[in-house]
Each structure stands twice: as structure tokens, then as C-alpha cells.
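Message: I would value a second opinion on how I read folds in C-alpha cell form. Give me a protein, with the fold worked out from its sequence. Write it directly below this note and I will take it from there.
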Amino acid sequence: MADYDILGNIAIIKGENKTEEEKLNQAKKLLKQPSIKTVLEKSTNIKGRLRTIKTKFLAGEKTLIAIHKENTCVFKFNVETCYFSPRLSNERKLIAEKIKKSDRVLVMFAGVGVFPIVAYKYKNPKKIIAIEISKECCKYFQENIRLNKVSPYDIELIQGDVKKKVTKKLGKFNFIIMARPNLKETFLKYGLTASKKGTKIIYHGFCRDEKLSQLTKQLKQEAKKLKRKIKIENIVPIGEIAPFKHRFRIEIKVLN
């Protein structure tokens, strides 16, 4: 894995096992890239459902606000208070391409709006509803809707917990994106609440490689307890988060 991420104008390096001199030398090298104006050191791991981090300033302009371009879109956000993974850029495009223009789409854990806005730009589906718990992320989500010239009628943002916001009142969806945090709870129950027969769920799961079959078995058992049947159509590793531990895209079809 690379020991740094580039989020538009900001590079964030991993500083463990490096001296201060090594960190500063790396920062100076990164600043030679024309697009990078700020270099930070990641000083904490991603924390909780809000997926926040802490950073330490190393070099360049003192800012935490990133302007990141991908998939013909532009996104603005605070790198400490808003979760964003540039490594999922291709994943967002691939998922968007699976959506049909006639689909009603639900995006859970929507962050600053990256999955919904990329989906809108590529496929412009019938309706996109996005749910995000973080008020800070929602603030930037609204700004990103404006930056990308998206109509608020095409993407509806709901601020709140998916546990409370995904209800029967929300209706049923053809396509559901669950790019969930790396937490113990699966949240599959809420995806199934919004599903009907034929719904496709894109589910992000995290586990060690040898535990993958255990994870898929757990998802099937949870569905069975809810008297729902699901079929796992495809599993793709989409990023190593630790040695031998991956984020997996699990493509689920709801059968009833």
C-alpha cells in the first residue's frame, strides 16, 4: 500500500516508523507536484461512524479544506471531519455504471456526496436519495451539489442515522449503495427494509481474506431471520486496509 493519499490539493502521509526529518523530506518531494499545495501527517486512525481523523501540519499552505477532482466531478470537504477515500475513485465509477436510468437509488453512509453525485453524472437515474449522519459532511454535500450543478430535485439529502431514517415511508428502491464504515454492525437490516424483489445492493464488507466466507454466511443468516432471501452474485476486493485484510464489494440481489 502507498504510504500517502492525495486528496486534490492536500497530500496526507502515514508517519509511523519515520523520523521527523524523513517526514519533512517526503513532504518537500510531494510539494513538487503542481497540484499539491499542502502536506499533512495522519496522526490518528479513522474513528467511529463519523469516520474522522486527526492530522499534523507538515509543509505548504495551512489548510484542511480539500478540493478534489474525479470522474468529471469536483468535491470540497474538510479532510479531518469528513471521510473521503481517493482510492475508491474507480469503484465509484464502476458502481455508477451498474445503475439503470430508470432506477430509484438509495445511498446510505453518503458522506460528502461522492457516490450519489458520480452516479448522477454517469447515469442520471430517476431519483437518488442519500442519507448521512454527519452534519459536517452534509454541509459539504450541499456545497458539492452546487459545485457540480446538480438539481436538488435529482439528489435528495437526508441528514440522520440510517437506523432511524430508513423506514417504510421512504419507499422501495431498485439499487442501494451501502459503502458502510468498518464497524461490527452490518446494517443489512436497513438495506433490506428499503428493498423489494429484484433490488440490487452494493455492500462494502471488511474482513481478513480467510474470513470472507464467514462474512457472506452471516449476511445470508441475517436476511433469513428477516424472512428475506438474498443471492450473492459477485465479490470483489477493492482495497487492502491492513495486511491480508480487505474492503470487499459484495453484490447482492434480493430475491423476495
User: Anything to note?
Assistant: The first strand starts at residue 4 and ends at 7. Helices lie at 20-30, 89-98, 114-123, 135-147, 162-165, 188-193, 212-225. The mean pLDDT is 96.
